[in-house]
Design brief:
heterodimer; A: about 240 residues; alpha/beta; Rossmann fold; six-stranded mixed sheet; four-stranded antiparallel sheet; 10 helices; 10 strands; about 35% helix; B: about 300 residues; mainly alpha; ABC transporter involved in vitamin B12 uptake, BtuC; two-stranded antiparallel ribbon; two-stranded antiparallel sheet; 12 helices; 4 strands; about 70% helix
Chain lengths: ~240, ~300
């Protein structure tokens, strides 16, 4: 479904992503793991079309999309949940969701139907519907941005660090939700630092280090690979596990 | 009592113009973090439209509608000419191109119309007066307040109830995220400039109605007023622009009443001193805008 080849991204003089190749097949949950600064978020943003200085090929269902603006890419069926969450803090929960459904605004009834679906999936959002999104807790905001992304009825969901900064119980909740979305047939590319949780649910995984793909394979294989910690901790594997 | 009513109507009518003007500046600034220096020229464009239509068979309201549309057209034109080509490249470049476009428009008016002032048509209603509790008030002032209320209501409806309005508010805090939800950047920006033109167009009718004529340099004062009002109110807050506008009018009108005749010509010096004090107290303006996000 998604094929990325030879992706390079530079922030000025700094190369953040140096030749990434990856693939996500229909219905898969693929985890993209790696330490801070490995280039995971940059890779996702580049797929979503949000970075100007990118090079390389991105194909969705065989069609090149790397030249498209972010607003066109979401129309093709890729929705993004950024690490920074980017809730519209001054807008109400409902208004946030309404913008999530922007691409289908001309289809009568599409918004109401999709809204109902998301409210069922995230009951807390129904309670908070008329509250400013900025007043929500971290976990609620995370649910809001996932729901907002789903409002566009994507084929592929790009999820960046959904567990970041959340309490363990909420993290559990979010991961259970990701599992449910996957079962419903949604294709997901998940960036996570919480490798254990991500690998437990993913079909396959890529491990990034210093802007390149350091390892790739079925999730179980990656999980069993002792190099994982070495890659995460910048080559300093902890003695006990090495 | 009579003086209080007089004072209140003066503040409200002047403040209405200041507030609408400031709002037009902030709607663009909030999204692009760039001041449109060619904004004052929209008043000029509307003014010369009225001047050129004078003598035609059109009723005044139709002329006013055409003038507003022209201000919107030139607002959007500003975006296409001065902002779009350089927006992504450099903030400095946009400052210069918007100054250049402003100068270009002024000189076009100098060259093709006249450096001297030209009369603009005003409706007979503007010159009438009404009596409220024994105070004689120009009807124009009341119409200004009514128009501002109507425009603010329309503006609020647009921003709260339409998807495009919600997108405009979203883009003011998280432009990149707004785009990643499928809202085209250019649609947001062009709409902001069109709304900005609409506001300037409405203001021009009453602003020029007070003076009765238009000159090529007419835009400077409204631009300055709008800028100061937004600085007072908070550069990125829409309610702040409205509050700032009315507050600036309150300061101006109070000084007009309080200052002795000899000092009246220095009124602006007093106004700006007060603005400085206000900013020392609240450097970010009275009302903080939405949380900052990305510009593109």
């Amino acid at each position: 479904m998604l094929r990325v080849s030879g992706l390079h991204v530079r922030y000025g003089p700094i190369a953040a992503v140096k030749g990434v190749d990856l693939e996500v097949r229909r219905g898969e949950l693929v985890a993209l793991l790696g330490a801070n600064g490995a280039g995971k978020s940059t890779t996702l943003l580049a797929i979503a079309g949000a970075l100007a200085g990118r090079q390389g090929r991105v194909e969705l269902d065989g069609e090149a999309i790397h030249g498209l603006t972010p607003e066109r890419i979401v129309r093709r069926g890729i929705a993004m949940v950024p690490e920074t969450r980017d809730v519209f803090a001054d807008l109400t929960v409902l208004e946030n969701l309404r913008l999530g459904g922007f691409v289908h605004r001309r289809t009568p009834g599409a918004f109401e139907e999709e809204l109902e679906r998301q409210m069922d999936l995230f009951p807390i959002l129904r309670e908070r519907a008329h509250q400013a999104a900025g007043t929500l807790s971290g976990g609620e905001q995370q649910q809001l941005v996932i729901a907002r992304a789903l409002m566009s009825r994507p084929k592929l969901l790009l999820l960046d660090e959904p567990s970041l900064g959340l309490a363990p119980l909420i993290v559990e909740h979010i991961f259970a939700l990701i599992g449910r979305l996957r079962e419903s047939g949604l294709t997901i590319l998940l960036v996570e630092q919480n490798a254990a949780q991500a690998l437990a649910r993913a079909d396959r995984a890529y491990v990034m280090a210093l802007g390149t793909i350091a390892a790739a394979g079925p999730a179980a294989e990656i999980a069993a690979n002792t190099d994982l910690e070495a890659i995460y901790f910048g080559g300093k594997a902890r003695g006990a596990r090495a | 009592m009579g003086q209080v009513i007089q004072f209140a109507i003066d503040v409200l009518s002047l403040g209405s113009l200041y507030a609408l003007m400031a709002l037009g500046l902030v709607i663009v600034y909030g999204i692009l973090r760039l001041v449109n220096f060619a904004y004052g020229e929209l008043i000029m464009v509307a003014g010369y439209t009225l001047y050129l239509l004078d003598g035609t068979a059109l009723p005044w309201l139709a002329m006013a509608a055409v003038a507003i549309v022209m201000a919107m057209v030139f607002g959007v034109l500003t975006e296409y000419v001065a902002f779009r080509p350089v927006r992504m490249k450099s903030v400095t470049a946009v400052l210069i191109t918007s100054f250049a476009f402003s100068t270009l428009l002024q000189h076009a008016a100098l060259l093709f119309i006249s450096p001297r002032s030209r009369l603009v048509p005003t409706p007979a209603l503007f010159t009438r007066t009404v009596e409220i509790a024994g105070v004689v008030v120009p009807l124009r002032n009341l119409l200004t307040i009514a128009a501002a209320v109507a425009v603010l209501a329309l503006f609020t409806f647009l921003l709260r109830r339409t998807v495009l309005g919600i997108a405009l508010r979203a883009a003011a805090s998280q432009f990149r995220m707004t785009r990643m939800l499928g809202v085209p950047a250019n649609l947001v920006i062009t709409s902001a400039f069109a709304i900005s033109g609409l506001l300037a167009g409405v203001v021009s009718l009453f602003w020029l109605g007070r003076i009765g004529s238009v000159v090529p340099g007419i835009g400077l004062e409204p631009l300055l007023v709008a800028f100061i009002a937004t600085v007072i109110g908070g550069m990125r807050s829409l309610p702040g622009a409205v509050v700032g506008g009315y507050l600036l009018a309150l300061i101006d009108v109070s000084l007009n009443t309080a200052l002795p005749q000899a000092l009246l010509q220095f009124r602006d010096a007093f106004t700006f001193s007060l603005v400085i004090v206000l900013l020392l107290w609240r450097p970010q303006g009275l009302i903080r805008g939405p949380a900052t996000g990305q510009r593109t």
